[in-house]
């Protein structure tokens, strides 16, 4: 017996479209002074973000009508892994930007393979864990393949000097193997190894040590290493309860570095205040709820894990970005999903949501009747 899919989760769709439109508006507000100084065009980043938003929404509309169960085919999974691994290797041969090799550039086009790597890892884990349901407690057949492939993807991303993305991928990996019931001793092994590797990365690289020391005492060097977090705190503190008003922020006037990318939440806090910032956090909470709802109601394990992984990926990234902006974490180059300026992040986040929306179309179908 076969049942037809229903309509998508309209609330999830509305939340994401609202975040994208809000992001385009805030990118303009945050970037206009920088764009005028660098490009002599206040709308420079607005135009580029709008183009990426249209491309991302178009991709989301296409993906949400593609049956997510097609991704379970072995040839699709192999193709995605080969493509992603190839791009992660190729990017290492491009000239570094600010000391990191994260971007593949072709003319005016730039792309970050690490954004694709997050989704591909989720695909792979959902694909493998569904096929290993009968031997989920096996070290050699389940745990080891999950960790080795995920570790390879994370290792290549780390070679780009992108520890923040690796941390997000690690949290997604830990969550997915936890929910399927991988034995605690294996989870403990993974957690211990992950924490040890993270600590090593933090203490073995000088600029990461500097960021940690700056996080602990930013006022020790207020015009140097502590300048960025201090300006972020000033921006958020200046906003008060209701904010200074849209486009009225002062710290983006060449005081706050990267106001339209990593620190756009600081601009939101200054211009829209505690009310605006708290509302944005609430919206991400609603997105997480709808994402979990879609994944829990999926008719098969692949859909459940795919939806869970995408939901955790998006919300974890949002929380890390906001934590950096409010100085709860050391400075890290992580964008705010759907809101920060950044084409690759916006595109692949919207593709992920497109898959979530497609999963939501099958939430009424009993697992015994799945096609």
Description:
Helices cover 66% and strands 2% of the residues. With 371 residues, it is mainly α. 44% of the residues are buried. The protein is built from twelve helices and two strands. Strand 1 and strand 2 (109-111) form a beta hairpin. Helix 1 (10-39) packs antiparallel against helix 2 and helix 3 (74-90) runs antiparallel to helix 4. The protein has one domain (10-369).
Which descriptors apply to this entry?
371 residues, mainly alpha, two-stranded antiparallel ribbon, 2 strands, globular, disordered C terminus
Judging from the principal axes of the Cα atoms, what is the shape? Answer: globular
Tally the helices.
12
The helix-and-strand class reads mainly alpha
What is the average of the pLDDT values? 89
| Share of β-strand residues | under 5%
Distance between the termini: 8 Å
Q: How many domains, as an integer?
A: 1
> Count of DSSP E strands?
2
Largest sheet: 2 strands, antiparallel
The arrangement of helices and strands along the chain is HHHEEHHHHHHHHH
Low-pLDDT segments: 367-371
Radius of gyration: 21 Å
Helical proportion?
55-70%
Enumerate the strands of the largest sheet in spatial order, edge to edge or round the barrel.
1-2
In short:
The protein has a two-stranded antiparallel sheet.
Give the secondary structure arrangement, pairings included.
Blueprint: H1 10-39, H2 44-63, H3 74-90, E1 104-106, E2 109-111, H4 113-131, H5 139-159, H6 163-179, H7 184-204, H8 206-216, H9 227-239, H10 264-296, H11 301-325, H12 343-361
Antiparallel strand pairs: 1-2
């Amino acid at each position: 017996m076969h049942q037809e899919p229903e309509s998508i989760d309209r609330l999830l769709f509305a939340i994401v479209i609202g975040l994208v439109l809000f992001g385009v508006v805030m990118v303009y507000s945050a970037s206009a002074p920088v764009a005028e100084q660098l490009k002599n065009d206040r709308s420079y980043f607005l135009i580029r973000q709008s183009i990426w938003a249209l491309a991302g929404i178009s991709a989301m509309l296409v993906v949400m009508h593609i049956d997510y169960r097609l991704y379970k085919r072995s040839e699709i999974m192999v193709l995605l892994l080969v493509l992603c691994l190839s791009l992660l290797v190729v990017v290492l041969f491009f000239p570094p930007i600010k000391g990191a090799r994260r971007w593949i550039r072709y003319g005016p086009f730039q792309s970050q393979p690490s954004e694709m790597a997050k989704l591909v890892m989720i695909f792979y884990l959902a694909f493998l864990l569904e096929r290993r349901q009968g031997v989920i407690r096996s070290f050699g057949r389940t745990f080891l393949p999950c960790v080795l492939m995920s570790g390879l993807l994370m290792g290549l991303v780390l070679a780009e000097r992108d520890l923040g993305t690796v941390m997000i991928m690690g949290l997604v990996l830990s969550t997915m193997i936890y929910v399927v019931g991988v034995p605690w001793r294996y989870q403990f092994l993974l957690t211990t190894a992950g924490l040890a590797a993270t600590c090593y990365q933090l203490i073995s690289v000088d600029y990461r040590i500097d960021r940690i020391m700056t996080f602990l005492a930013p006022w020790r060097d207020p015009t140097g290493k502590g300048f960025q977090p201090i300006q972020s705190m000033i921006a958020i503190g200046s906003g008060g309860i209701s904010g200074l008003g849209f486009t009225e922020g002062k710290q983006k006037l060449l005081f706050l570095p990267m106001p339209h990318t990593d620190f756009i939440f600081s601009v939101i806090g200054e211009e829209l205040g505690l009310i605006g910032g708290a509302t944005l956090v609430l919206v991400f909470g609603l997105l997480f709820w709808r994402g979990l709802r879609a994944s829990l109601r999926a008719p098969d394990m692949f859909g459940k894990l795919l939806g869970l992984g995408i939901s955790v990926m998006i919300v974890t990234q949002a929380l890390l970005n906001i934590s950096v902006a409010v100085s709860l974490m050391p400075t890290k180059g992580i964008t705010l999903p759907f809101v920060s300026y950044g084409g690759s992040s916006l595109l692949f986040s919207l593709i992920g949501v497109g898959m979530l929306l497609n999963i939501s179309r099958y939430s009424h179908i009993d697992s015994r009747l799945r096609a």
